[in-house]
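Why show two proteins at once? Because comparison is the fastest way to build intuition. When a single record is shown, students tend to memorize it. When two are placed side by side, the eye starts asking what differs. So, the first record is below.
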Amino acid sequence: MKSLAFVSLLVVSSLWVAGPARAGTFFPPFSDVSVCGDETVAAHMADPNSLVNATRCDALCKKAAGACKKFVNRIVACKIQHFVTATAFFVESCKEEATPELVASCKVGIKQDLADIEDVLKGQRDTQLLQCEVWGVDCQVACP
């Protein structure tokens, strides 16, 4: 299921990648954030009823939900780092503009785009952490 945050991220990141078209002289070498993975981890987990026959069902449900949260945090942290790194290259590109005014204007736009992307990613992270929690609760409810 594609979340609103995911769609927002696509829109914001596509605008952000278009940044060099308006300023700067080259694109950064990092353009595909998909290398970080899909943060919708809970959606890819087994059915919450899958541990119902385990002797330690409740504890395993909690452990699985915790692991889900760790994956989400790592994936979103990777995506944030990806955009931070790419932004550093965009800023270097801005420095090659013809005038100090164009350099300053270029940097402001890129840094604001990064802040917007980070906000979207943090919201998406929070949504996916909640999904991990829901999976864990559903799993525990299924335990005997």
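Second record. Ask yourself what differs from the first in the token line.
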Amino acid sequence: MLRTLSLILALAAGSPTWAAEPHPLAAPLAAAADSARQARRIQLELDDLHPLYGGDRYVLEGRVLTHTHQPRGGKPPVETRVTLSSPQLQELAALLHAQALWEQRVPEDKPRPDESRTTLTLTLDGATSTIWERHNDLVANDRLVRVRGLLASWASPS
């Protein structure tokens, strides 16, 4: 009731004084950037697979990053697993938070011919968010491509 009254008064005054509620992932990701313990609770899946052209999927559970590469042409997938350090997890959390990667910024539209979408699903402290970008727009959007690049650098054999 009080919030409704405040809203009505703010609208009547002509200047909104309320702020949008922060997303439930915003604070936990900010905390994970500073806390190794919190960062280890991030669950993530970045799916950049196309049924015809192959691609990559990254899954982070705890400290274990699993990378599945599906070559083009129906060849068998190649899977690698690496254990990430606490500083790596915190770096990832900082990137996810800085890019606000819980926000879907690409508007929904009719699928384009031969369209492929890259999706990112994040879960932390019971909050989950799934966002997507068109594969052909990843570089221009400069969001999911950063996460993919970071994960790929860790998953690549040295």
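One difference worth noting in the second protein: The helical segments are 2-13, 26-34, 36-39, 86-98, 138-141, 144-155.
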